Amino acid sequence: MQKLKIRGGNPLRGDARISGAKNAALPILCAALLTPETLTLHNVPRLNDIGTMLKLLAQMGVVTSRNEETVTLTASSLGNLVAPYDLVKTMRASILALGPLVARFGEAKVSLPGGCAIGARPVDLHIKGLEAMGAIITIDAGYINAKAARLKGARIFMDTVTVTGTENLMMAAALAEGTTVLENSAREPEVVDLAECLIKMGAKISGHGSDTITIEGVKSLHGAEHAVMPDRIETGTFLAAVTAAGGKVRLTNAQPNTLDAVIEKLRDAGATIDSTANEITIAMSGRPLSINVRTAPYTAFPTDMQAQFIALNTIANGTAVVTETIFENRFMHVQELVRLGAKIDIDGKSAVVHGMEKLTGATVMATDLRASACLVIAGLVAQGETIVDRIYHLDRGYDHIEKKLVALGADIERID
Ligand code: UD1
């Protein structure tokens, strides 16, 4: 199993190019299921989760090809309409195949994802929404079986804001008969990016980016070409790393206007941040100030940045309260940070982080994707050597993170 060996203490300086967004690319890859024509995607990040999604689509019969960051997908006819447990268990986003399959082919069989390290994560709202559109859904032997002659437009209220739920239902509604209104929709930029790709494919969608999305169903969609938006969580992770480790870094191919909540907090921590439409420059010297954060759906502070901000707070001046409101078990990184000398108390949904002058290197274990990023940031500031074990989580969601950090002056090595 691969590990990262990090010798902390170096400031970060230079330029890093941000990759395409994992959480936008995954639903957009599934959108290829909605048309027999070719979908060409650019700025697709090189990640294990993308590889898993391509494998899932290929085993259904989608013809895929990949050249660097460009991927083409043609779903002219499919051999099977099944997302098997083996693939779904490694990547929950496989559930995004459900809506497109039932909308275009009238049936789908997708494994129930089950829980994961950060919480129970049910998919009841995906299922309820499809049922409201007329799908007959049964759960059998761990699989969701969906059938529908043709989905019908419906008014659907989701009582919790769900990102992939909104995406699944938006894709399904694109081919339904009549108009669908999705109320209490997720407003995340990745939902907007998917909507924009679907519109290029001929879908009639309005209101994306707000909490009410209206989709007027069409009979068929066609091929299109789309560049995936930049990854705001990768961007935020680099910004948090510079705020913790100090230095000056320019992030290119970024989309700063998707990061307002994060940038605001880092300024409060003491960082100087300037941005243009697609670049962000961050400079930081000295010890950061502690910053309280509370996660919530977009436009508020993202849960996918919570762990990195806990890492930042471990060496900040003061005490911070970090509150997680989206997932019930998303503090697995805390015990690992404690191994590096961090002082953190968990109180229900909040972590109280008492900033320390320093952390000291040790061996720690990554438990999920963003927890891994948090441990890398901690390793960058800890004195001595930190070994981060189980970095396959990191490779699921960060495109060559250690290479990018080494180019910025970090002392990191991948070891077996
Ligand atoms: C997506 C992101 C993930 C991010 C999360 C929250 C992708 C591939 N993943 O995950 O990185 O952390 O949004 O921003 O885009 N819920 C229900 N019933 C449902 C669906 C969700 O109760 O049917 C609950 C979940 O348990 C959770 C909350 O809604 O408490 C939000 O989850 P959701 O937005 O669905 O997360 P994902 O779309 O899985």
Which ions and ligands are bound to the chains?
A: uridine-diphosphate-N-acetylglucosamine
From the helix content, strand content and strand pairing, which structural class follows?
A: alpha/beta
Count all strands and give the number: 24
Tally of helical runs: 14
- Average pLDDT for all residues: 96
Q: What does the overall shape look like?
A: elongated
Tell me briefly what this model is.
The chain has 14 helices and 24 strands. With 416 residues, it is of the alpha/beta class.
List keywords for this structure.
single chain; 416 residues; 14 helices; four-stranded mixed sheet
Tell me about this structure:
- The chain is α/β, with parallel strands linked by helices.
- A hairpin with a 4-residue loop joins strand 16 (272-275) and strand 17 (280-284).
- The model has no long low-confidence stretch (mean pLDDT 96).
- Helix 1 (22-31) packs parallel to helix 7, helix 8 packs parallel to helix 10 and helix 11 (332-339) runs parallel beside helix 12.
- It has 14 helices and 24 strands.
- Helices cover 32% and strands 26% of the residues.
- It is elongated and about 65 Å long.
- The protein has helices spanning 22-31, 48-60, 85-88, 98-105, 124-132, 163-174, 189-200, 232-245, 260-269, 306-314, 332-339, 369-381, 392-397, 401-407, and strands at 3-7, 12-17, 38-42, 63-67, 70-74, 82-83, 107-111, 136-140, 143-147, 155-157, 179-183, 204-206, 212-216, 224-227, 247-252, 272-275, 280-284, 293-294, 319-323, 343-347, 350-354, 363-365, 385-389, 411-415.
- The chain has a four-stranded mixed sheet with strand order 22-23-1-24, covered by helices on one side. It has a four-stranded mixed sheet with strand order 2-15-17-16.
- It starts with a strand and ends with a strand.
- The protein binds uridine-diphosphate-N-acetylglucosamine.
- The site of uridine-diphosphate-N-acetylglucosamine (UD1) has 21 residues, from helix 1, helix 5 and helix 6.
